Structure to design on (708 residues):
């Protein structure tokens, strides 16, 4: 139904889907080779002999017809376009390569092409209950992995070793893998917003920032926690930490359908500005998560303003980064509800001293 | 120099490189954001404030000028094109998306575009000594990880758990991560050429096939070993194993500069056919490895015939797959030498019974 709505919007007779994330989203197919062709009436899934069995199991229940083509999938698509008298075909211009497009032009004679732009990203913003359940599980795995490596967080530990252990603990709990390069950033490195784990060793006193997540059944989780290693945080450490935490919770508590992404960003940002740290929070407040680690909506003063809708899943992750001193970021995955929010992460946001 | 040669071949005044693997290959930059513009005289590396420090360290020694542009990299490229009177610009049509291309057309007025096709893949076929040294290390990590998990390979072990342990052991030894989804396929599943590790448990008797590798400093390794779990392999198990092993070693011993990819494939295939298993070896013999897990040359009866040159790095991986019974594949990474070959893997190819 979604695809027919999009055909109407784009005034197209059919949609060709070749990006595997979108193939998965619309057909349910989780393998690596296959193409979706949707017309007003029909849903075709074209794949080769290696995947027909998997396709029968995954896409037929979603109303797709499996078309086996071992040699020339594009020629087969061309035949289907003819059979269905397709004149205007919508394509994924943001992922189709120029050379792929040239082979479309060569194979699909007499067809006019229409760009889909970011319309699939907009569709994917609002999750189904099944998608939310998977993301909830991905967040749970993330929480558990963090708890499992706590005993290893101590002076002398190498950042990279901690990231290796986090990844291992996530995989042991069923994750497909990390959802991005894991950030473990200690002391001065914690002031880098994206300090991917390095060979640096943890010192006796200071912040250690962990930003990580996993893919589980294709969906991403994303959590940040900053701990204090040692027993003597300065007043400034506490002030910075508490400011970020307050800002994060203020923003989380403001989440509900009808609020806009920029309003959320502003709530956290104004709080941090009020404490005098505004210039040290240079990035956006968060982003959507789903089949990709960064999806729509961007929750940022820099991104398009989008009105939150029920069942969007976003991150809320303000931070303060003081060069030479250290930095703090706290991040949760949040489901937008009609009248509020659900936090998917269970890990404490109290300042943990280890 | 390579880039100037390509400009000549393509009759272009300049080359724009946006695919990050090729950016890395030609400039040395290992970060995530940056664009290379090469003209006959100049090498520009355009990036934003986050990466200028890294770029200074990585690309300047390779003769590149770092151009910082925080907002509109394409507008900056357009200026550079004008300054250098570029008329014909070569682009990576196989990785540039249609929408990227449209923004090139919009930003780069009066420029004619030339497709690079697969020319970078052809350049990347022949490795430098430095690249080979990195791949050698990646192969060593792969060997060591396999040795480390040997004690876990026993009846009742879950395939997925073994793949998790392999990945963990590779990361602990400095790998960036696995170079593809790890295959652990036991008993009937070993007859699937690409049986990614599943929830299946290892049985008391039968083949277990491991196909895995890592990325290390950006470069891939790729090794397959098949072991026999249990103590009572049948005659058929031994015959299948020995046939694959003989075929693999025959092909490896034939590797040297001047031999073609199809000749190698034929040597292994004819041996297997002679033993009556020809129809059960349906895939190609191997492929190049490098910044990607599958690079040129394809070493296969199906792929373009390419004459091997010194310092190509290829895999040799014949297999026999008998549905319902099991399958065997043995794979090494091989450096092509002027008069022979170097095997990068040290793991035994004797039939290991565990």
């Amino acid at each position: 139904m979604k695809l027919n709505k999009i055909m109407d919007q784009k005034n197209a007779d059919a949609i060709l889907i070749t990006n595997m994330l979108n193939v998965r989203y619309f057909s349910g197919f989780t393998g690596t080779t296959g193409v979706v062709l949707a017309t007003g009436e029909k849903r075709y899934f074209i794949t080769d002999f290696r995947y027909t069995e998997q396709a029968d199991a995954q896409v037929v229940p979603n109303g797709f017809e499996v078309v086996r083509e071992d040699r020339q999938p594009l020629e087969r698509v061309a035949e289907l376009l003819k059979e269905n008298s397709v004149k205007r075909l919508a394509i994924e211009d943001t992922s189709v390569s120029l050379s792929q497009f040239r082979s479309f032009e060569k194979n699909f004679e007499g067809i006019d092409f229409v760009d889909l732009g970011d319309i699939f990203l907009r569709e994917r913003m609002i999750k189904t209950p099944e998608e939310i359940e998977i993301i909830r599980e991905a967040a749970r795995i993330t929480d558990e992995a963090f708890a499992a490596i706590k005993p290893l967080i101590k002076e002398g530990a190498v950042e990279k070793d901690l990231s290796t252990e986090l990844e291992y603990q996530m995989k042991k709990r069923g994750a497909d893998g990390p959802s991005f390069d894991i950030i473990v950033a200690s002391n001065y490195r914690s002031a880098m917003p994206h300090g991917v784990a390095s060979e640096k060793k943890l010192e006796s006193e200071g912040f250690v920032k962990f930003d990580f997540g996993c893919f589980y059944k294709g969906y991403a989780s994303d959590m940040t926690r900053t701990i204090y290693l040692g027993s003597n945080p300065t007043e400034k450490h506490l002030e910075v930490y508490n400011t970020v935490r307050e800002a994060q919770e203020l923003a989380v508590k403001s989440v509900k359908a009808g609020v806009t992404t920029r309003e959320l960003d502003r709530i956290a940002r104004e709080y941090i500005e009020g404490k005098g740290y505004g210039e040290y929070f240079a990035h956006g407040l968060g982003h959507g998560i789903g089949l990709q680690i960064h999806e729509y909506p961007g929750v940022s003063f820099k991104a398009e303003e989008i009105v939150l809708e029920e069942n969007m899943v976003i991150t809320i992750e303000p931070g303060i980064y003081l060069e030479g001193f250290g930095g703090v970021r706290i991040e949760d995955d949040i489901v937008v509800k009609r009248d509020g929010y659900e936090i998917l992460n269970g890990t404490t946001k109290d300042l943990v001293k280890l």
